[in-house]
Design a protein that fits this description.
226 residues, alpha/beta, D-Maltodextrin-Binding Protein, domain 2, six-stranded mixed β-sheet, three-stranded parallel β-sheet, 8 helices, 34% helix, elongated, binds glutamine
Amino acid sequence: TATVKTAKDGVLTMATNATFPPYESYEGNDIVGIDADIAKAIADKLGLKLEIQDMEFNSIITAVQSGKADLGLAGMTVTDERKQSVDFTDSYATGIQSVIVKEGSSIKSIDDLKGKKIGVQLATTGDIYAKDDFGEENVEEYNKGADAVMALTSGKIDAVIIDNQPAKAFVKTTDGLQILDTDYVQEDYAAAIQKGNTDLLNAVNGALKELKEDGTIQKILDKYIK
Ligand code: GLN
């Protein structure tokens, strides 16, 4: 296969924020998860080595825009606003914005969030929706989803809005929390690629298509989503 030009010769550089299980999180010194496995499979298809750069979620788009990273892969939702800064590959997974509250909370529906203090991860779609729907003054932004969950546990905030899979992972490892039985917003996840880099976009989409068709993507999702 023809080699595609990347930021670093022979390497596919992935920018992520490894605080988002089961998509990306640390296991010892390694970043593991759905996105790490998918990026590895794409890199293999393209005959490249994979390197993962961990950064703030907020910095991923800039890293891709500037060409420092080839791929932003971070459970990232495709949005029109982000499309002004980067191109997105075909979608490889879906997400749902979920609401985490304390067990026994009086918050039982999306409507009940009105006037409550809502924690989110900075610059995520959950952050954007929460501010739009419930007012900026009611939204507390944290660098990590896990920090928002800690603030919920300690009673500083009343709810956390975050993607459903990390929500499940956080609730599983924290006592006294529950996920509301309501799906706030449905989303598509895709990889971000430098705007106009059609060679790389086509190469990654080609790899993704093969990995979907041969069942690899489904296998990776099933490995992490129980
Ligand atoms: N899917 C959400 C977004 O794209 C959250 C992603 C994340 O926190 N890694 O904004």
